[in-house]
Write a structure and sequence with these properties.
This protein is 27% helix and 31% strand. By secondary structure, the chain is an alpha+beta fold. It has a seven-stranded mixed β-sheet. The chain has a four-stranded mixed β-sheet with strand order 6-3-8-7, with helices on one face. The chain has a three-stranded antiparallel β-sheet with strand order 5-4-9, with helices on one face. The chain is elongated, with a radius of gyration of 23 Å. The termini are far apart.
Length: 331
């Protein structure tokens, strides 16, 4: 986005839990300590594992004349993260890409914001790129050694993760396909932050997490379950990729989810198996899930049926969202 347009740019303001507050703020105006905005970056790699880098214009207010990642910028009011990434690609490089089904590969935080980083594999023809002259003066492909040398010379913006960026995608894809690398364990307080980060990714699919207050309430519930040993997680290194809360008192599976990038690895089955060792075998185990007509219920209902659960009565989550109970009887 050009400096001229930046003067009129409006941002959505978020809480630290990354929930929209409903407030808007003009770019350049100071945010308070508890206000945050969203930034995105897109890193385009070709099949030679070279990164498409851009050189910022010398008259830019931030990092003038420096080389940078493929594109980057702030999300404007009303945009999702992926929509902002698509817009920046179109504006700065003239590239049209559909990122609607693409998740950020990682997110970093800074004093007043969140920065989503997308990694895209695309052998872009440089002759087809249309530079936004207000922002970009040049682009080219560069390998890891070149980029790190530029960083050492002070001509590339000093991102702290540059030395890892070139291996991140292949490392991630390799690691996530190694079932043996995923550890099922009881959660500790050290896992809480990563647990909640995963919840941010999947919460759209769960009733009761629509507001900041509900998310905070859920976080407190997780803390209580961790303290009493009824919180199970799947770990990929230090990253939580599966979560399960259960109640011994009610013989109930209360909440379960798996990171979208780690599904079809039997993580849910493994977490349930750990839970079953703690449950009363003489009482049915109950779980409440989506009803048959709910499109969100296709996968979880199929999972519970395959695991031996049987359909029970209809019910409502917190007297609002229509659900159905399933029961597992082990006698």
């Amino acid at each position: 986005m050009s400096d001229k347009n930046e003067k009129m740019e409006l941002w959505d303001i978020y809480t630290k839990e990354r929930l929209k507050t409903g407030k808007l703020q003009k770019r350049g105006e100071k945010l308070s300590d508890d206000e945050y905005h969203l930034v995105i970056h897109v890193c385009i790699f070709n099949n030679k594992n070279q990164l498409l880098i851009q050189q910022r214009q010398p008259f830019k207010s931030g990092w003038p004349n420096m080389w940078d990642l493929s594109v980057g910028g702030s999300a404007i009011a009303g945009e999702s993260s992926s929509q902002a990434a698509e817009r920046e690609l179109a504006e700065e490089l003239g590239l049209k890409m559909d990122l609607s089904d693409v998740l950020p590969k990682f997110t970093t935080t800074f004093r007043n914001g969140f920065d989503d980083f997308y990694i895209v594999k695309n052998d872009v023809d440089l002759s087809h790129i249309k530079l936004q002259k207000e922002e970009v003066q040049a682009v080219r492909w560069a390998d890891k050694e070149e980029v790190l040398k530029m960083q050492q010379e002070g001509t590339f913006i000093p991102y702290w993760f540059l030395d890892k960026l070139f291996e991140l995608d292949s490392w991630y894809n390799t690691f996530r396909n190694e079932d043996s690398a995923i550890k099922i364990t009881y959660a500790s307080n050290e896992n809480l932050s990563s647990w909640m980060s995963m919840v941010e990714i999947v919460k759209w699919n769960f009733p009761g997490l629509e507001t900041e207050e509900k998310v905070i309430e859920y976080k407190n519930t997780v803390k209580k379950n961790i303290d009493r040993g009824t919180a199970i997680c799947a770990l990929f290194g230090n990253m939580v990729v599966g979560i399960l809360l259960f109640s011994i008192k009610h013989n109930m599976l209360c909440c379960m989810a798996v990171h979208p990038e780690f599904r079809r690895k039997h993580i849910a089955s493994k977490m349930v198996k750990v839970m079953l060792d703690r449950m009363d075998k003489n009482r049915p185990i109950v779980v409440e899930t989506f009803r048959e007509e709910d499109e969100k219920g296709t996968a979880p209902r199929a999972f519970y049926k395959k695991a031996g659960f049987e359909e029970g009565e209809l019910c409502f989550f917190e007297n609002e969202y229509p659900e159905q109970r399933f029961y597992l009887r082990r006698w």
